[in-house]
């Protein structure tokens, strides 16, 4: 039951952020009662915190594995990441939104929730930063590029693609148009 609650809560958070997290809707979807949900999670804040921690850890692990598989090859990393994003967009039914992005942008959420999301953003940027430096040493990214700036720009590009995808009724048409965006963009910084 706990895992099912977490999955439904994650979908709600991705789609609409902290304000959309709703125990009653989760209970209804699981054909159970709100007290049963509260048995597993004391309150909305606790559930949101747990989901955000889980999401952040999975996202970071995926980025680290992808970076290892593309050691010294930031353009290759972005090509692989773009394929993952396209698949997620095409199969997400409008819920590809990032839990951490939702938490960062919300105004009235507990500070520790915002902190978990901000930490994840910083950790992912650090993965990009390290891979960019390795790529500079390998000659796939120009040495005159500031790795920290390129890491932040990369995060912004990815977040932008995800957010824009949520505004499109036909995700397949959208992904066909954006295919190659990250790879073509990073060529501006190639060695």
Protein described:
- This protein has 191 residues and is mostly helical.
- The protein has one domain (52-189): Tetracycline Repressor, domain 2, CATH 1.10.357.
- It is 74% helix and 0% strand.
- The chain contains ten helices and no strands.
- It has helices at residues 2-16, 23-29, 34-40, 44-69, 74-91, 99-105, 111-138, 147-165, 171-178, 181-186.
- It is elongated.
Shape summary? elongated
> Which segments are poorly predicted (pLDDT under 50) over 5 or more consecutive residues?
none
What portion of the residues fall into strands of 2 or more residues? under 5%
Largest sheet: none
Return the string of H and E elements.
HHHHHHHHHH
Helix content: over 70%
What is the fold named in CATH at topology level?
Answer: Tetracycline Repressor, domain 2
Number of domains: 1
What class would the helix/strand composition place it in?
mainly alpha
Q: Could you tell me the mean pLDDT?
A: 90
Number of helices, counting only DSSP H or I runs of 4 residues or more? 10
DSSP E strands, number: 0
Tell me the CATH architecture. Answer: Orthogonal Bundle
What is the rounded distance between the termini?
51 Å
Q: Can you identify the CATH class? A: Mainly Alpha
Computed Rg = 18 Å
């Amino acid at each position: 039951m706990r895992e099912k609650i977490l999955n439904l809560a994650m979908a709600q958070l991705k789609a609409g952020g902290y304000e959309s997290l709703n125990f009653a809707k989760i209970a209804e979807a699981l054909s159970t009662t709100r007290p049963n949900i509260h048995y597993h999670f004391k309150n909305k804040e606790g559930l949101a915190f747990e989901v955000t921690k889980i999401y952040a850890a999975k996202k970071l692990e995926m980025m680290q594995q992808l970076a290892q598989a593309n050691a010294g090859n930031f353009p290759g990393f972005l090509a692989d990441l773009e394929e993952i994003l396209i698949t997620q967009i095409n199969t997400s039914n409008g819920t590809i939104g990032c839990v951490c992005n939702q938490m960062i942008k919300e105004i009235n959420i507990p500070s520790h929730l915002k902190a978990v999301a901000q930490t994840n953003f910083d950790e992912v940027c650090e993965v990009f930063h390290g891979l960019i430096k390795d790529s500079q040493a390998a000659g796939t990214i120009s040495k005159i590029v500031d790795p920290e700036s390129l890491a932040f720009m990369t995060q912004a590009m990815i977040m932008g693609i995800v957010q824009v995808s949520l505004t499109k009724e036909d995700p397949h048409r959208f992904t066909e148009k954006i295919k190659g965006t990250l790879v073509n963009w990073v060529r501006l910084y190639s060695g």
